[in-house]
Amino acid sequence: MPRFRPLPLLTVFTIASLALLAWLGTWQMQRMAWKSEQIAAWQTRGDAVSFRDALCAPSGDVFSPPVTGPVPLTGETLRYYTMRESAGWMRLALMPVPACETGSPDRYLLVEVAFEDLQSAQQVTARRWRIETPPGGTVFSPRNDPDTNQWYTLDADAMAAALGIPSDSLLPVWARADTGMPPSLSRTPPAKHLGYALTWYGLALALIGVYLALHASRGRLRLTAPSQDGDKIKKAD
Over the stretch 183-203, which tens digit does the pLDDT of each residue have? Predict the structure, then answer.
């Protein structure tokens, strides 16, 4: 009959570590499934439409179809920090958009018109867009600095004030340059998340093996009971 006398502190540490490794593996599996769905949504997002169609008849999908058309810009541009292949500034211009219904108040849309690469100081002009909801800021996001025209999070009121328009006329979405699949999807494909998950699960199995081997080496884990002859020899000694 197996005998097992676990070491208390080591057992507590091992259980906590196993729980963490299992959670990390499961989280990577969930990321793999989520990213696969996002990529599928990107690949089936439809054909190019106009700004009016994209704003007045949204598809409701994760990603809007590509948006093309004339961009009647007005006023100054805002510099919004973001990451592409490298860090840089999006240049956001203000565009009046057509009303979806007769008599509706004027509305404005922030449109990315260029991207300034910090490394090469190169400016790339946008020619095609997609409609997105701007990401929210985090506790680690730097503060916006309207005086130097440096923006790190979307602040509709402050941005509207900087551009000289009423804050309630600024749409809650913006038009980002559509230069291909977003880096958040292309940099780490789903297969990599599967590899990460298998790594975490493998570490969990290795930890179990080390835990059992350590107990076996100290005589705290026995798969079979000691033989009677062995007990007699020990008693004789």
Answer: 778 888 899 999 999 999 999
**Are residues 203 and 18 in contact, defined by beta-carbon separation less than 8 angstroms?**
no
d(CA 10, CA 223): 20
What are the angstrom distances between the C-alpha of 98 and each of 51, 55, 71, 72, 161?
9, 9, 12, 11, 21
Element (H, E) at 171: strand 170-177
Distance CA 59, CA 46 (A): 9
Contact 219, 5 (CB under 8 A): no
What distance in Å separates the CA atoms of residue 168 and residue 83, rounded to the nearest whole number? Answer: 28
For 95-115, the pLDDT digits (tens) are: 988 778 777 777 899 999 988
Which is nearest to 208 in space by CA: 15, 8, 7?
Answer: 15
The number of residues in the chain equals 237
Instruction: Specify the pTM.
Output: 0.72
